[in-house]
Amino acid sequence: MERATKIPVTSTATSRIGMGKPNSSAGEGIHILVIRLSAMGDVAMTVPIISALLDQYPNIKVTVLTRAFFSPLFSALRNVTVYEADVKGKHKGIFGLWKLYKELKSLNLDMVADLHNVLRSNILRQYFRLGSIPFIPVEKGRAEKKALTSLTHKVFEPLNTTHQRYADVFGKLGMPIDLENAGPLSKRSIGPSTMELVKGKEQKWIGIAPFAAFDGKMYPLDLMEKVVHSLNETNHYKVLLFGGGEEEKDILDKWADKYQNSINLVGKLSFKEELALISHLNLMLAMDSGNAHLAALFGIPTLTLWGVTHPYAGFYPFKQDPQNALLADREQFPLIPTSVYGNKYPSGYENAMRTIAPEDVILKIEEIINK
Prior knowledge:
- It contains 12 helices and 11 strands.
- The chain is of the alpha/beta class.
């Protein structure tokens, strides 16, 4: 089995723009709009960057344009406000985006960091040009990612991390960020109702998030259940199961009924309460997915399992040990990574993650827990 032995924790690429020593007096009184919509993991990856930005430039103000649901991600960051993008309602379409622009313009913004760079934000960029407000989009490296995932002319080498790509946007706006010194968020207080649900801390808490947006990067559920079974048998761990939606809830309900040391959290906690609980885990086991990035925000040791995606694409959880990853066997499946998101793979590659044995997952969990 191939282990992730060359995963860059922070980028060593030379694409930093103006990345000299940060000057804390820079950005005095500046108001920055940060745009990042889309999936939870993508939004979560902005948090350590914005946190580092505020640490190094304490006098700036940040407004994050994202879904209202994601507000708890930013609640602990000072000088940060979340502005809701209602892209399925009043901000839908070209005219809706014009309305959004007019709303944002009234906030007296000085510059815009577009960490999304899609059609919707590109339309907003054209509107912001009318007001001559600096607007820098993230360089997503689409050509590099296409080469990395090519099935015929693959260029298999690590790309710039997403975190560094985000940081480079602020560098282009005149505020370079040093990610080497960026630290995790502080633990959050767990409410009484959550403590009652989890019932104490006599056992070590292991979070398991067994689902992913696409099958290509989801560990087979029969194998993941074997992991839960093995952890349950030790009586050393409380297994906290994360997911969402009725189908996932039904699966995890069955596991929780079968294994006494497991608790299904689906539908029982708000997102804010889930974040607080995650901040106190001893370990998170997840796919190449949002929950891995949530745990990494708090510096929680995070074991990730990778199928047809690969850490080389730049989505490894922030500042996690490069050894905390188990990858599908590229000797048997040499075309990995076949896609960035796990939604594309050739016939036969649906079995790639079966090359990661449950026994190896358990051994890695115990290795990390006992460090």
